Amino acid sequence: MPHPATWRTAKAAACTLALAAAHLSAHAVVEAGHWRFTQDPAGQFGNFSVLVDQTVGGDYTGTFFDYDPSAGTLTYKTFNVDEGSEVWVTQPGAVIDNRFKPSLQNGQTTAVVGTDFYLGAATSSATDPGFSWATLSNRTSFGWAHFRADSSGKLTLVDSAMAFREPGIVVGTLSAVPEPSTWALMALGLASLAVRRQAHRQPRQPAGAVANAA
Prior knowledge:
214 residues; alpha+beta; five-stranded antiparallel sheet; 3 helices; 12 strands; 35% strand
């Protein structure tokens, strides 16, 4: 029978992992959708506009491009004058967060995307807790969208998702990026389980072994 201390360690590890899972799920607001687009050759600000929701309830912000299907290029034109968003080319499995945001607005005016591409977006809302125009670059909501063009150049929004008031999202999934505190809780729980396994593997001396050795 396992030693009582081993059971206590296992129980503590399980509680820690459960707390980490609860912490993650309690804060996760990740939903499919929340992206829209229009494609209009006579568009005033470009022939391709991307609209990203800034909150779960909507409140979209727009970014405008020219898409050239023959060259497979996407050229930035302008964006809505509100909280705005950063938009960039990405790929499945990438993490969309505040650490790396090569924006199409800021320097990378044209990108080669082909006819099947992913865009990432980082945005925020004035309704976010602690929102400040002075720290607008510290975004609070992140998302991705998959676009595909047919032989005539007509675009289709294949799939998309947004993580609202989250540290980030993994492109191509509905998985939010855990906060550092959640990672710490999970690491602590896993470490406790490792200690339990180590203790369980240690052989025990049979009863009377010490007396016989003496």
